[in-house]
Design a protein that fits this description.
445 residues, alpha+beta, outer membrane lipoprotein receptor (LolB), chain A, Serine Threonine Protein Phosphatase 5, Tetratricopeptide repeat, two-stranded antiparallel ribbon, 16 helices, 44% helix, elongated, disordered N terminus, Tetratricopeptide repeat protein
Length: 445
Amino acid sequence: MNRKQLLAALALAASASCHAAVTLQVTTSVHFEPTKSATNLPPDSKTTAFVTLADDYIAAKSGNATTIYDFKNRRRVVLDDANKTYVDYSLYDTLGFRVFEMRSRIGMNAALAKAAIPDFKPPRKVDLEQELTLAEDSASVIDVSTSGDTLRFTSEGIPLAAWSKHGAQPGARDVAHFAQLLRYVQSIHPQVLARLAEGGVIPDSLTFTTNTALAPVTVRMDVEKVQGASPPAFTLQGYAPRQATPAQGALEALVDRMAAQTPKQLDALRAAHPCDTEAAYREDQLLDTMLGRVECTLSTGAPMLTFTPAQLEQVRASVPVSLAFGATQTTKQEEFEASVKTLSGLRSQAPRKAYVLKLFEANNRARLGQFNESSQLFADVLEANPVLGGAWKDMGDLMIMRFDMPAAWRSWDVGRRIAPTLPNFAYVNQLESEMAKRHPEYLIY
């Protein structure tokens, strides 16, 4: 089955109005193979997951955690079954990580090859696609063969996957759903995954081999107890949004708190942090005045409140205003260090709105690679004004730099709830649209 056929099959499955679900048990064993250059490897591990392949969601329970893949709303909800709490994530964060990681690996490998480092052997394209379960094209050649009751997949003679021809046959829809679960939880080449999805069987056992930069990894999955079921519709009844404590991380606690806000509570927060009006203009506090008006634009997307000609002349003549906004225009790496010192030094001249200066400083420190300092500044900013939508967008950008995609999308999602029309989020919306267009297989169920 090619990619278009797979998407059509998944779309057909999604359109079915009623279908009995399937439950099954999956035991996963992981082994890292030592090499000459890699001996201090993670120990072998084994986990068991109890899986439900329902009409509009997949649930996978392992230990005290249950992960719900909600394809209808493009969400991934992680339940803490012991504490009866949950965290709501975006399905885009998994795809986003793999897209950005793929770009990063390709760029890094090209740089290493150009540097002509001795003994550097660039990874094969097919191995990178297998590791990230992502391919931008179908150029990689994967050979399929049969050995007894086993179907094997190799590339240039190197194993990628194998599975038993024997297994449960609950129906094409359920097999496609099983393959969709593996897309999120295992490293499998998309071509191999497509073959599994259209095979008509949930195999008794599957083996996947990933040739990572660290060491070859072999994953064996044993599937049993496949049976029909009629689970209830997915609900969060009995669970409350997780509320991390500041000791677990200031930003984590802040995001949890804001993610749990109801629309009514968000309205109350907006009312508690109104935009400055013309009456807030202070000739003796021009930096504060300017920052207040910028804050409003970054919170609501509304055009900045205009100045009278006389006021504008005063603002343009203000040295603190000139220094502050000059520091936000920095583009050269060697100038960022001076800019953060300027912004930090100006805080005392903005008694009401110093946290807006911290927002500018947080962005500049991120560009210096000072991620911890930047994170603390974002926490300060959003504690001062939790409905400053632009700060949520910028904090998500910081998390992208840190390759913490779940945190990035949580920040962006909070910001879009607070200020859904803020132009700053156009980039995020476009990013999601492009990913959905290039890799729809991640989002169709």
